[in-house]
Structure formats: C-alpha cells, structure tokens
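TA notes, week 10

Several of you asked for a full example with nothing omitted. So below is the full record: structure tokens for the whole chain, then the designed sequence directly under it. When grading your own attempts, check the secondary structure regions first.
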C-alpha cells in the first residue's frame, strides 16, 4: 500500500506538467494561426487607387522658357504583383507594380506676353495618359502598417494646349517618365508622395485667327507648325485606397 500511495503522489506533478505542455502547445498553435490570418489580411490589399494634387513645371529646351503649375490633379489605378508568397524575414515583400491607368491634368500659371498690339495673357493646359511598370519593396514593421518604396517607368501620351489672345496652339508628344515614390499605409488608407521627370518632342500646330483668310483653300494653309523639345518635372502628393 505504501508503494501505491507513493506512485500516486509522484504521478500528480507529471500529469500537471503534461497538461501544461499541451496547453502551451495549443496556445502556440492559436497564436501562429492568428498571425497567419493577420499576414493574409496585411498582404491581400494589392490594388491601389490614388487621387493626387500635382505640382508640375514645363520647360522649353530651345528658348529656356519655364511654366509652373497653377493647379493639377491626377487619378491613378494599378496593382502590385508580389514575387513570393511568404514575406522575407516575416516582414518584407518584393513586387512589381503595374499601373494600368494614370490620368494627369495641369493648368499652368498665366504669363503676360508683349505683342505689337499690346500685352496679352498666355494660358497653357497639359493633359497626359500613361501606364507604369517597375519594382517595389514593401515592409510590414508592425500590426497592419505598411511602408512602400517604388520606382517605375511610365511611357505616356502628352498633349499641350495654349491660348494667347486670338492664337491657339496644340501639340502632342510621346513622353518617357521616370517615377520614384513611397507610401505609408494602414489597412485601406495610404498617404504617398512621388516625383516624376521626363521629356518629349512636341509637334505644335498654331492657328492665329487674325491671319486666317476666309478664302483659305484648306485648313493646312491656316496652320503653322513647329517642333519643340520640352521637359517636365512634377511632384504628386496623394491619398490612396488599397483593396
């Protein structure tokens, strides 16, 4: 009987240790499962929609004239394709950003020009459509916070329209932009800033109402053309939705 009682006394601590070990194992599994669910939510938001305020300059390479924006806005939509399923070191992912749509509009500040008939005001607008592609690095330091940096190449169609009194000028060009930027995100909401710079050769058509003869045989006779090399540089500050 003494041996049996001694066995029971020794068995109780062993049973407690076994229960504690199983509890700890179960707790670790629950914690790991919760972390997996969190990571899935963190990295599931791959699409982005940006609405930006644009500050942009337009410089003519030939005469050195430079215009600065009075107002600008852009709308950007794209998606990040991550190159690996699990984050490196539990917090870093490398991906490729593909922006399908980038619509950018800028109205430049009016400038006063001296003409033989006195002073006149030059008003210039620029419209652009582009697509982007390039690498991005995203870090998840804590909770649902994401910090992202990226660089992109953006082939673009750009058009410039200017009005100076009775003179109207329009010119299109292909422009190659390089874009560098970064965002800070928490769940759905992001704040970002980026810089763009590019150049293009614009074929400008100019029509001056004072010089158009009503007997002109064709519209080509009423237009003058010129080729102008221009450079653009802009900063865009944007609010982004990630989903």
């Amino acid at each position: 009987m003494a041996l049996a009682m001694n066995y029971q006394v020794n068995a109780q601590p062993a049973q407690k240790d076994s229960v504690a070990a199983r509890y700890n194992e179960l707790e670790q599994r629950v914690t790991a499962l919760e972390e997996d669910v969190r990571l899935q939510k963190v990295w599931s938001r791959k699409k982005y929609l940006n609405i930006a305020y644009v500050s942009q300059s337009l410089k003519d390479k030939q005469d050195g004239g430079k215009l600065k924006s009075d107002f600008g806005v852009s709308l950007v939509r794209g998606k990040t394709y991550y190159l690996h399923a699990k984050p490196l070191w539990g917090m870093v992912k490398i991906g490729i950003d593909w922006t399908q749509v980038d619509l950018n509009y800028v109205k430049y500040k009016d400038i006063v020009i001296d003409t033989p008939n006195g002073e006149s005001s030059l008003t210039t607008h620029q419209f652009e459509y582009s697509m982007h592609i390039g690498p991005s690095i995203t870090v998840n330091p804590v909770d649902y916070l994401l910090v992202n940096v990226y660089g992109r190449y953006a082939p673009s169609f750009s058009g410039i329209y200017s009005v100076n009194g009775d003179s109207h000028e329009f010119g299109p060009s292909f422009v190659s932009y390089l874009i560098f930027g970064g965002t800070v995100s928490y769940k759905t909401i992001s704040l970002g800033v980026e810089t763009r710079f590019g150049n293009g050769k614009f074929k400008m058509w100019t029509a001056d109402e004072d010089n158009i003869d009503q007997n002109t045989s064709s519209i080509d006779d009423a237009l003058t053309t010129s080729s102008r090399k221009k450079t653009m540089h802009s900063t865009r500050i944007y609010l982004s939705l990630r989903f």
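The mean pLDDT is 88. Use that as a sanity check on your answer.
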